[in-house]
């Protein structure tokens, strides 16, 4: 559509230029108005530029890995001693949801760490201290896999600080 508009704009400009340069009486006013309309109409058009392939929905592995690493880094405090964030699970796809009490019991029985777990309407709030970032990531992923969990908010202290 931009090519069609651009073509018509160039044609309009060419016609207006012809009428202005040949001094054809009443056509001079028409040509001037056409030029003004063209300038007003094209002034708000976005620049025609080549688009990045990633913007069209294609994902490169490098871009995706970089994004995942950035998200993980953002969950760490600057000193690397805290891992926190919020993530969402797709609970409807995993069968019959558990009750909040059963979700809490499952989490506490599956982890050996000293964690505080609160569950309300499928939303889990998790706090405590774990060994390192990798263990924190494992726990969050395990909780997201529990039927009935919709979201998990976590604030976990790391005993070993940031691990790579």
Topology:
Layout: H1 2-21, H2 27-42, H3 61-74, E1 82-88, H4 100-110, E2 115-120, E3 123-130, H5 133-144, E4 151-158
Parallel strand pairs: 3-4
Antiparallel strand pairs: 1-4, 2-3
Describe, in plain words, how this protein is organized in 3D.
This protein starts with a helix and ends in a 6-residue tail after the last strand. Strand 3, helix 5 and strand 4 form a beta-alpha-beta unit. The protein has a four-stranded mixed sheet with strand order 1-4-3-2, covered by helices on one side. The chain has two domains: 41 residues, no CATH class; 91 residues, Alpha-Beta Plaits (2-Layer Sandwich), CATH 3.30.70. With 164 residues, it is of the alpha+beta class. The protein is 45% helix and 18% strand.
CATH topology of the largest domain: Alpha-Beta Plaits
Overall geometric form = rod-shaped
Radius of gyration: 30 Å
* Percentage of residues in strands: 15-25%
Quantity of strands, as a count: 4
Instruction: List segments where confidence is low: pLDDT < 50 over at least 5 consecutive residues.
Output: none
> Mean pLDDT, nearest integer?
74
Structural class: alpha+beta
Indicate the percent of residues in helices: 40-55%
Order of helices and strands: HHHEHEEHE
Quickly count the helices. Answer: 5
The assigned CATH architecture of the largest domain is: 2-Layer Sandwich
Biggest sheet: strands, sense, closure?
Answer: 4 strands, mixed
CATH C-level label of the largest domain: Alpha Beta
When the domains are counted, the total is 2
| End-to-end gap | 48 Å
Strand order of the largest sheet: 1-4-3-2
């Amino acid at each position: 559509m931009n090519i069609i508009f651009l073509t018509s704009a160039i044609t309009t400009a060419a016609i207006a230029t012809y009428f202005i340069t040949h001094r054809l009486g009443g056509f001079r006013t028409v040509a001037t108005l056409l030029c003004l309309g063209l300038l007003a109409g094209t002034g708000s058009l976005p620049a025609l530029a080549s688009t990045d392939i990633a913007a069209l929905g294609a994902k490169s592995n490098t871009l995706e890995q970089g994004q995942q690493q950035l998200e993980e880094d953002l969950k760490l405090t600057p000193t690397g001693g805290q891992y926190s964030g919020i993530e969402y699970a797709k609970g409807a796809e995993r069968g019959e949801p558990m009750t909040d009490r059963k979700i809490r019991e499952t989490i506490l029985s599956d982890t050996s760490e000293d964690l505080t777990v609160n569950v309300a309407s499928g939303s889990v709030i998790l706090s405590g201290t774990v060994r390192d970032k990798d263990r924190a990531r494992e726990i969050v992923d395990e909780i997201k896999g529990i039927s009935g969990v919709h979201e998990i908010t976590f604030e976990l202290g790391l005993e070993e600080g940031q691990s790579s």
